[in-house]
Write a structure and sequence with these properties.
By secondary structure, this protein is of the alpha/beta class. Helices cover 36% and strands 14% of the residues.
């Protein structure tokens, strides 16, 4: 509350220094040390929509995705004008099955959108290879998977775009919000325009020339301040999720008629559920 009081009485509650500080510190948490490659948004859905725009999705383009997710994942594809192409999932964990994804690549495929279902990292190695071979980006919806790891590295650098949700019931919340990690700094720079009406906020107003259609998707100082405080406490929260999940893994082993989830050896889930 003292931090919130300070920002509320500061005279600037929209996007400003707290947002930049939150992007920098959140980026460090997910292994994105270059603060220019991570963008904050007022929602994870806004971040995902922006990722699809940056991936080049236009009306009529196909995006390979999954039905094992909340509705906003695939609504974002429609927001960008794309067409959802369903791929099958691995029944052992609910994540996209690489073989099914590869079989659905077509000349109209513009991107692959993979969800880390329940906090279990998708098979990122195989999906990245399929995307690379097809010459298209891999977009990772990590809304469930803050703090999860692949090959020992925290999620945030394993896809061309990685979206994190900070909505009310996720591992970490800013009341509502989202983050987008971009592999390409140039894409991130364009994303800053997309999230603010196509305008470079750092340019003098007399120099503004809107050449990109943009939206009002930015984060504000109030929610960013909540995020900064949350970051001070998030690792123990994630650790507790993981401990609870592993407890159930052990406790349910051997129950007649029940099989447990399984996943790639490189995946370390953060057990959102």
């Amino acid at each position: 509350m003292p931090r919130l009081r300070d920002v509320l009485y500061s005279g600037q509650i929209s996007e400003g220094p707290p947002v930049e500080a939150f992007e920098r510190q959140f980026g460090a948490f997910v292994g994105v040390q270059d603060a220019e490659r991570i963008l904050s948004f007022y929602s994870g859905t806004a971040a995902l929509h922006t990722a699809l725009i940056l991936a080049g999705v236009q009306p009529g383009d196909e995006v390979i995705s999954t039905a094992m997710t909340a509705e906003p994942t695939n609504l974002a594809i429609l927001h960008a004008g794309g067409k959802v192409v369903w791929a099958d999932v691995d029944p052992q964990n609910g994540n996209l099955a690489p073989g099914s994804v590869a079989a659905r690549i077509s000349p109209r495929t513009r991107a692959i959108l993979a969800v880390d279902y329940g906090g279990i990292p998708a098979p990122l190695g195989e999906l990245a290879r399929i995307a690379r071979d097809a010459g298209i980006p891999l977009i990772e919806d990590a809304a469930h998977a803050l703090g999860a790891r692949w090959n020992g590295q925290v999620l945030g650098n394993h896809a061309d775009f990685v979206m994190f949700s900070l909505q009310a019931i996720k591992h970490m919340t800013t009341v509502d919000g989202g983050m987008l990690a971009c592999r390409d700094p140039a894409a991130a720079a364009r994303g800053r325009l997309v999230r603010w009406f196509g305008i470079d906020r750092k340019a003098p107003r007399t120099d503004v020339d809107v050449a990109t259609v943009g939206f009002k998707y930015h984060m504000n100082n109030v929610t960013a301040t909540i995020g900064l405080v949350q970051l001070d406490h998030i690792q123990p929260v994630i650790d507790r999720h993981v401990a609870n999940g592993r407890w159930f893994d052990r406790a349910l082993t051997g129950v007649p008629g029940l099989s447990l989830c399984s996943w790639h050896a490189a995946a370390e889930p953060s057990y959102w559920f």
